[in-house]
Amino acid sequence: MIICHANVSWTSLLVLTLVILFAMSSEAGEKYVSVDFEVFGNVQGVCFRMYTEAEAKKLGVTGWVKNTRQGTVVGQVQGYPEKVKEMKYWLSNVGSPSSRIHRAHFTNEKPVSKLEIRGFGTRY
Q1: CB neighbour class for 61 (10 Å; exposed up to 12, middle 13-18, buried from 19)
Q2: CA atoms within 13 A on the CB side of 29
Q3: CA–CA gap between residue 93 and residue 3 (Å, rounded)
Q4: Residue 36 and residue 78: Cα distance in Å, rounded?
Q5: Residue span of the signal peptide, if any (predicted)?
Q6: For every one of its 124 residues, what pLDDT tens digit does the chain have, with 9 covering 90 and above?
Q7: Which of 48, 50, 99, 121 makes the best surface tag, with the fewest CB within 10 Å?
């Protein structure tokens, strides 16, 4: 047992403890990241969505992917920051074997306290 001889009141200790616990819960409350993406290049008709879904499931991120009428692929990814970062790299540089990625654009990146999407799927 540690005995503190300093002139500290129990009220001060309680307030300090509550402040620390609040700070810890706030940080834990934003442990996920969400980001929207659009991939440009030869990304339709080359199984890009199927490979994106497989990569997302492998990394354990959630979200969706779909083709656009403009010939791009759009979607959203949510998950732990390091896993979302890996998925962003994959979308920018790897893609499906037959795809040719010119660039990937990421928007609306923000911390989220919980995953808003279950699983990862293709939308039509």
Answers
A1: buried
A2: 6
A3: 58
A4: 9
A5: 1-28
A6: 555 555 556 565 555 554 454 544 444 557 999 999 999 999 999 999 999 999 999 999 999 999 999 999 999 999 999 999 999 999 999 999 999 999 999 999 999 999 999 999 999 9
A7: 50
| Cβ neighbours, 10 Å, residue 86 | 18
The structure tokens 């949510």 sit at 78
Return the active site residues.
Answer: 49, 67
φ/ψ of residue 86, rounded to 5: -65, -40
Pair 122, 53: CB distance under 8 Å: yes
Angle at 37 between CA 95 and CA 34, to 5 degrees: 115
Place of tokens 């928007």: 107
Tokens standing for residue 41: 């290049």
